[in-house]
Amino acid sequence: MTYDDAALSKTFDDMNIKILKELVTNPYASSTDIASKFRVPLSTVQRRRARLEDTVLKKEYALDIRRLGWRVADLLIAVDKGNAEETAQKLLQTSKSNVIVASLRIGHPQIDVMAEVFYRDSQELHRLTETVKGMPHVTYVEWAEVVKVVGSNLESMLDKVLVGRSD
Predict the structure, then answer these.
(1) What is the pLDDT of residue 165?
(2) Model pLDDT for residues 97-115, shown as the tens digit of each residue
(3) DSSP 3-state assignment of 24?
(4) In angstroms, rounded to a whole number, what is the distance separating the alpha carbons of residues 15 and 5?
(5) CA distance 21 to 161
(6) What is the dihedral of CA 113, 116, 118, 123, to 10 degrees?
(7) What would the pLDDT profile of 28-76 be if each residue is shown by its tens digit?
(8) CB-CB contact of 72 with 116 (8 Å)
(9) How many CB atoms lie within 10 A of CB 94?
(10) What's the pTM value of the predicted model, to 2 decimals?
(11) CA torsion angle for 100, 103, 107, 111 (degrees, to 10)?
(12) Fewest CB within a 10 Å sphere: which of 14, 72, 91, 129?
């Protein structure tokens, strides 16, 4: 769903922006806490929150498999021209026990497909990368693992997207 300027200004008035920022930066915030923080009636926050959840917010749970002893990496995969989607689909089907999500990519001259994968140890990752290298149309595979998240510019992104402000 996309919005025109009139719909944006109504959907993203000051109070809705405050509610969105609070929910995005603190997904556990209750409507009562938000109402108290911004000194508005609870019913106002509840009504606006419900509307935002129906239109622009995406609520989901994510399992943090790292806390369960698993590791997570991205496989960066190059394929023959015209075979990216087929390769991504096949990867999802044949490696269900390791592939979380597969996506098509543009921007890098070699990388056409990226797969987020999980594994217990380096041997399992090696087996997985060798399997992917052996798939039809795959010409190159590399991997990268997140070592540490250094920080986030989520607040700045929200300001730019919701208010149109760019610093």
Answers:
(1) 53
(2) 999 999 999 988 889 999 9
(3) helix
(4) 17
(5) 11
(6) 30
(7) 999 999 999 999 999 999 999 999 999 889 888 888 899 999 999 999 9
(8) yes
(9) 13
(10) 0.74
(11) 70
(12) 14
Q: Which amino acid is at 109?
A: P
Q: In which band, very low, low, confident or very high, does the pLDDT at 1 lie, cut at 50, 70 and 90?
A: very low
Per-residue model confidence (pLDDT) at position 10: 64
User: How does residue 156 score in pLDDT terms, banded at 50, 70 and 90?
Assistant: confident
Could you give the CA distance from residue 14 to residue 25 in angstroms, rounded to a whole number? 16
Beta bridge partners of 130: none
Closest CA to 144 of 164, 159, 161, 129: 129
Q: Which residues contact 71 (CB under 8 A, 6 or more apart)?
A: 118, 119, 120, 121, 125, 145
Token pair 């129906």 is found at 54
Q: 29: which residues sit within 8 A by CB, 6+ positions away?
A: 22, 23
Distances (CA, A) of 133 to 78, 87, 117, 127: 10, 11, 15, 10
